UniProtKB/TrEMBL annotation:
It comes from the Bacteria. This is Ser/Thr protein kinase RdoA involved in Cpx stress response, MazF antagonist. Residues 31-221 form the Aminoglycoside phosphotransferase domain. Keywords: Kinase, Transferase. InterPro entries: Aminoglycoside_PTrfase (IPR002575), Kinase-like_dom_sf (IPR011009). GO terms for molecular function: kinase activity. It holds the Pfam family APH. Gene3D superfamilies: 3.90.1200.10. It comes from Actinoplanes philippinensis.
Length: 269
């Protein structure tokens, strides 16, 4: 049975074109959101969102039992109110402050287990499977492969030179971008999209909030929690490692494989 029939949904439309898709729909005239999770450990982001919601954060809450199917699970959420703030330096700085507050709450969840399919940044770039993947990709697409290789090698070298990193870890949201934060009359009404949630260094949350150029995010963060120099130095190697999350699950060198997102973000450093 499809989720549309199972939950009596109407007027559904896709909001993303990713494999982990998101749809807007209506049920009994009320707006809802439908998400499809492909990961084996799809319950992990729901658990993180629930733990933050218990502290008062406005995270999406399932309103039906997930519909588990081969290859993943469908989850139905009530649609949260509000809209994203307009982008700009002020928004970035406020988002940085919010991120620091979020990390305090993330630590308080007590969640210390790792999500299936994820690892610490040093382990991601040192994975022998990634080395095999890179060799195959370099052979098929040399120019793109060379950019990826330089990025990966720089991250490996940094982590080799800095063993035993002492930096705060917790679960992270993974994508604290403007479009994942909803506001209504200045009040935060929605913290969305926990698909990237896992346990790692907290500064890894800068990858998709700072994105290599939004420096006001870091400045705002430090208004709440100043970063020691060791953590500041960790931002770039963690950023580089993020470019390879899940990459080995993709076919190396395939013509249909679009790595423009990774290449764009790598070139920002």
């Amino acid at each position: 049975m499809t989720p549309w029939a199972r939950w009596r949904l109407a007027n559904h439309r896709a909001l993303t074109d990713r494999v982990n898709g998101t749809w807007a729909a209506e049920r009994d005239g009320l707006p809802v959101i439908v998400k499809f999770f492909t990961e084996q450990d799809w319950r992990y982001p729901l658990r993180v969102a629930a733990a933050l919601r218990a502290q008062g954060w406005p995270t999406p809450e399932p309103i039906e039992e997930p519909l588990v199917v081969p290859g993943g699970a469908w989850v139905l959420f009530a649609r949260l109110p509000g809209r994203p703030r307009d982008p700009g330096p002020a928004e970035q700085r406020a988002r940085g402050r919010l991120l620091a507050e979020l990390h305090l709450a993330a630590t308080a969840t007590g969640i210390t287990g790792q999500r299936g399919g994820f690892a610490l940044p040093a382990d991601v770039v040192a994975d022998p499977e990634l080395e095999r993947w890179l060799r195959a990709h370099e052979a098929a697409r040399p120019e793109e492969g060379a950019i990826l290789r330089r990025c990966r090698d720089a991250a490996v070298a940094w982590f080799d030179e800095h063993p035993g990193i002492d930096a705060p870890r917790s679960v992270i949201h993974g994508d604290v971008a403007p479009w994942n934060l909803l506001y209504d009359d200045g009040r935060l009404t929605g913290l969305l999209d926990f698909e990237g949630a896992h346990h790692t260094y907290q500064v890894a949350d800068f990858v998709l909030s700072w994105r290599g150029y939004q420096d006001e995010v870091i400045r705002g963060y430090e208004e709440v929690r100043p970063l020691p120099e060791a953590e500041r130095e960790l931002i770039r190697p963690v950023y580089r490692a993020w470019m390879f999350l899940g990459l080995t699950r993709q076919p190396a060198g395939a013509a249909a494989l679009d790595l423009s997102w990774q290449i764009t973000h790598i070139n920002r450093l």
